[in-house]
Design a protein that fits this description.
21 helices; about 600 residues; alpha/beta; two-stranded antiparallel sheet; about 10% strand; eight-stranded parallel beta barrel
């Protein structure tokens, strides 16, 4: 599989539903995107919807069918692949016949793109040689990648009544199998950390092994937060003969969805380490890969396969986009949350999109609503929050838990239970009530909130797509959970796909008229505030926790020193350089006021 990207950005996975059909919407323009494939029920309903819309024969796959999860995923991905290919062929025909369509398309390409220059030159003569122009389009244009995502933690055991099924039927394992057996020639993005059992399962599918010329039918992408994580996971896979084709670096806090805070390591220093050590990473992994493939009796590529580095999380201007590409030499930049305001690109109901557009900085926050126990970015005022709060007010907290994708809390029967479920919260509240006599009112309130604040993400992150497409939403009302990053506070209106892409490439700005800090400064601010919240109100802590905080603080101060050098040495305008330096100074002073040593050992 060899692909030349027309764009220097991609649309990352967002939630369960927000990018579930994004390739159908934008792939014909050469824009790559990522579909979450964990929720087979959602994919099955989307398959039915789009099969009817494009008048394609289909068969529904019942839960009574053996391996229905994987079969549903394969079926939907094959449908998306078919639709994208048909739309792409139709789009190329439109470009050859319609001058306005051609001009609009080329206006969406990067201004420095060689493809854009070649297209313009070829188009000037195309009426005299129309067949030659069509052949040029066939040779040079590619549709955007239809990549898929698995959150590796979502891999619970499954049961047939009371009989535990083999590991291959776990949620993430079934999703991997569904992708592997599909017609797609694209990549699977693994997020949320290492899952050795799942990673080992890749060996069962020859589609992931390289050819002698370093090509792949299906590729592996790892979403990582730092270089050490990339090296450990990449080497683990390489020892099995599996190659990581791309490391997708994501800001720990300045991102959408689940936020995996690093130990105070900031995006700039992380990218710097990747830039300096990329060749080492590639060479070390290739050495391990070659040994593993030789041991398996498989072809060993003549040279190390391509290894890409991309970055995402908080980017919001063309200048930031270009800086990441040029200074850190990344291959592409992920633009996620702003596309939630682009109806042509993402699946979101009207009410939720309006909520996002109206949101101010204070409305976007890092919550504790995820049953995974991981901080989760969201916005105040969602319909899910309204239903959630109503159930608490009527003494019926928790969800009915129909999908059980996050039923990961261990139980005696091995089936697991979700911490957002009514059953779990009722049990924990009963346990808490037995301790009332020993607890003060403030502690009872705090512990009650910690139990009941968890929300049903399985349903809430899928409902927006049902609402947008007019599909029935069955069962207990959960409303919509949305997971934008803090960066969305600086976008305040619905945006067309054309205007969004032009904004990315330096066209007219679509940002709101608000003071927006540089993405690197914003991430620093988020990290400083995160540390302050972690320490807030604590008078005692363990030695381990104190050491962790000190490391966190030290890494932030090191990051500030790095940025101070970066802003002086890089091509920032003088007025912007001064502003950035002042912002760095403010955050440094805030950190210096933090006296971790005053917290007593527990």
């Amino acid at each position: 599989m060899s692909r030349v990207n027309q764009h220097t950005f991609h649309i990352p996975v967002m939630g369960l539903a927000y990018t579930v059909d994004t390739p159908i919407r934008v792939a014909q323009f050469g824009i790559s995107s990522v579909i979450s494939i964990v929720d087979d029920e959602l994919l099955e309903k989307m398959k039915v919807f789009y099969s009817k819309k494009f008048q394609i024969p289909f068969e529904e796959i019942s839960q009574k069918v053996t391996d229905y999860r994987a079969l549903r995923i394969t079926s939907y991905l094959n449908l998306v692949d078919r639709i994208v290919k048909e739309k792409f062929e139709g789009f190329k025909a439109e470009l050859a016949e319609n001058a306005q369509s051609f001009e609009r398309f080329t206006a969406m390409l990067p201004s420095a793109s060689q493809l854009k220059q070649k297209l313009d030159a070829c188009y000037r003569d195309h009426f005299a040689a129309k067949e030659k122009f069509k052949a040029f389009l066939d040779e040079h244009l590619t549709s955007g990648a239809i990549d898929v995502n698995i959150m590796t933690k979502v891999d619970k055991d499954n049961f047939n009544k009371h009989e535990k099924l083999p590991v291959m039927f776990n949620d993430a394992h079934a999703a991997l199998r569904g992708f592997a057996q599909s017609n797609l020639q694209s990549a699977i993005v693994l997020s949320a950390g290492m899952n050795p059992r799942l990673y080992s399962y890749f060996e069962q599918f020859p589609q992931f092994f390289p050819t002698v010329d370093g090509q792949f039918q299906k590729k592996i992408i790892l979403k990582v937060s730092d270089f050490r994580s990339a090296m450990i996971q990449g080497n683990f896979l390489a020892k099995k003969g599996l190659w990581v084709s791309e490391y997708r670096i994501e800001s720990g806090l300045n991102c959408g969805g689940h936020a995996f805070a690093t130990e105070g390591l900031l995006l700039g220093p992380i990218l710097e380490e990747f830039r300096q050590k990329k060749e080492q990473l590639q060479a070390d992994s290739f050495e391990l890969l070659a040994k593993a493939l030789t041991a398996k009796g498989l072809d060993v590529p003549t040279n190390a396969p391509y290894l890409g580095i991309t970055v995402q999380g908080g980017v919001g201007t063309a200048a930031e986009h270009d800086f990441l590409l040029s200074h850190y030499e990344v291959d592409a930049v992920g633009w996620g949350s702003p596309f939630l305001l682009v109806p042509e690109a993402t699946s979101t109901d009207k009410a939720t999109r309006e909520l996002l557009a109206k949101g101010k900085e204070a409305d976007f926050y890092l919550s504790n609503i995820s049953p995974l126990g991981i901080a989760f970015n969201t916005i105040k005022g969602t319909t899910n929050q309204l239903h959630h709060d109503h159930r608490i007010a009527t003494n019926k907290p928790g969800s009915s838990c129909p999908k059980k994708l996050l039923a990961l809390h261990a139980t005696s029967d091995g089936k697991g239970i979700c911490t957002a479920s009514h059953k779990y919260q009722e049990m924990k509240l009963a346990e808490l009530s037995e301790q009332y006599a020993q607890l003060d009112a403030a502690t009872i309130e705090k512990k009650t909130r910690e139990i009941t604040e968890k929300a049903c993400l399985c349903v809430g992150l899928a409902n927006a797509s049902y609402l947008e497409h007019g599909l029935p939403v069955k069962g207990q009302q959960q409303g919509v959970v949305i997971c934008p990053g803090p960066n969305l506070a600086y976008f305040d209106k619905e945006i067309s796909l054309f205007d969004m892409v032009r904004h990315i490439y330096g066209g007219p700005s679509i940002l709101a008229d608000r003071m927006r800090p540089h993405m690197l400064i914003k991430e620093l601010q988020l990290y400083v505030n995160y540390l302050l919240r972690e320490m807030e109100g604590l008078e005692q802590a363990s030695a381990v926790q104190l050491k962790k905080w000190e490391t966190f603080r030290s890494n932030l101060l090191g990051g500030i020193a790095y940025y101070r050098r970066l802003f002086l040495e890089s091509a920032f305008p003088e007025n912007e350089r001064q502003t950035l330096s002042l912002q760095l100074q403010r955050e440094e002073q805030e950190l210096e006021r933090i006296t971790i040593g005053t917290v007593q050992l527990a």
